């Protein structure tokens, strides 16, 4: 059994369409434009599965996507209830298990009880019962863990932040949590970061907003080169931690620092505009773009980190209003997990 890296071949990407009953209601038109752009980018390379709350939401989403001239042959809808659209954290964590898959269904608690998550916590079970996934079994695990909190290189090394896991499980020590994650996720190394955070992030420092594997020997991370910025000290300390990490064969990781976008302020609240929240798909990396001068530099950095993939910017300024970005609203499904 093995936890595949995100860059391995995929069947599809799983998302959930925003609607008036989610937290997007106040700015629904803006976020729909982002979702249309996201779906358009995905279907250039592979299928997309879209969860919809009911028939009306499906009909509306289909009409919006069709009017944008998206290839609907690559778009598939699944009707299932959900509280919100952050499927990185409520979707399945897929392990390859022989010729099939084991879908790990951890507890989703709305990031430590910050938001209602009763429907989201049932999503993997419901999708499994509906026959969404092929050749797989679901393993329910009574432990709070979100997909955005973990990164794997596909070869047994896990990267995470201690702040997030400690916040979810304050009574458990690092040794205990390390052993549990290694066991469930089939990892033999767990690397912890003790520094790094983003204002406007309510996940308690998910790793997918901070540092990401680009290869077994490479990490892309969110840098900050502005000493006047409130993030400077923490992100510089995180960069030093990353520089001190070693690969399985004892070598330093190749590190790629992403540029720092100018502060995005919304109603006196700073939003978490991280370029590290990218999504790797078949043949491409989808990059969150914020309409900032640093977007072009971020695209160039990702092109160096992923030289064999297209780098496709997706406008994500609307997503950070709800404290997440592109990777947060998606979950890749490994090749073979979805039939067809």
UniProtKB/TrEMBL annotation:
GO terms for molecular function: agmatine deiminase activity; protein-arginine deiminase activity. Keywords: Hydrolase. The keyword Hydrolase applies. One of its GO terms (biological process) is putrescine biosynthetic process. The keyword Hydrolase applies. PANTHER family: AGMATINE DEIMINASE-RELATED. This is Porphyromonas-type peptidyl-arginine deiminase family protein. It comes from Lysobacter antibioticus.
